[in-house]
Write a structure and sequence with these properties.
Helix content: over 70%
Radius of gyration: 19 Å
Distance between the termini: 36 Å
Number of helices: 10
Number of strands: 0
Number of domains: 2
Order of helices and strands: HHHHHHHHHH
Length: 183
């Protein structure tokens, strides 16, 4: 990992652990055991750093769930359960709340949140479309899936014990029992 990437990784960790106040250049440099000069060798300003941090989060977050889901064999309910368990274990998703806080003071972070949220919703809609649900039903189930995962993992900090049952209910429908619907 190069120094620029280390600055970004440390920024995400600091943001997650202590909020936006933890993004002071001096504090980050101290944790990285480098000088402030290292910061300015990679970023023109703190504003440029916050923009880069937001983009770094967006790039690391977006494609993960889609790739995992499409490669997973099984029924829709089984795929949803695999996705839910992945999201629950994923460290990348754990930065979402911190980036949302940053989005209150940084436009690039707000745009990244919007972009990732839209991509996740579109993915959720597409999952149910491909499973054979009509558009309105696919969108409704996609909203339920996205909202449920966000609330469970980010707000409650874990999946509920009834995760398999929730996935089963969300996955019931036209072609949902087919093992081949995504191929």
């Amino acid at each position: 990992m190069g120094m620029r990437e280390r600055w970004l990784a440390e920024g995400l960790e600091a943001l997650r652990a202590s909020g936006t106040e933890a993004l002071r250049i001096d504090g980050l440099a101290e944790r990285l055991e480098v000088t402030k000069g290292s910061f300015y060798a990679h970023f023109d300003s703190k504003a440029a750093y916050l923009d880069a941090l937001s983009e770094h989060w967006r790039e690391q977050t977006m494609p993960i769930e889609v790739d995992l889901f499409l490669e997973t064999p099984g029924t829709l309910a089984e795929k949803l359960l695999t996705l839910a368990r992945y999201v629950d274990r994923s460290e990348r998703v754990r930065y979402d709340m911190a980036i949302r806080e940053l989005g209150k003071i940084n436009e690039c972070a707000a745009e990244a949140i919007e972009s990732v949220s839209r991509a996740r919703l579109e993915f959720s809609f597409e999952v149910f479309r491909r499973a054979g649900f009509e558009e309105a039903e696919a969108r409704a189930r996609g909203h339920l899936l996205s909202g449920w995962l966000l609330a469970s993992v980010l707000i409650e900090g874990k999946l509920p014990k009834a995760v398999a049952e929730i996935c089963r209910v969300l996955g019931e429908g036209p072609k949902a029992r087919s093992r081949e619907f995504l191929r």
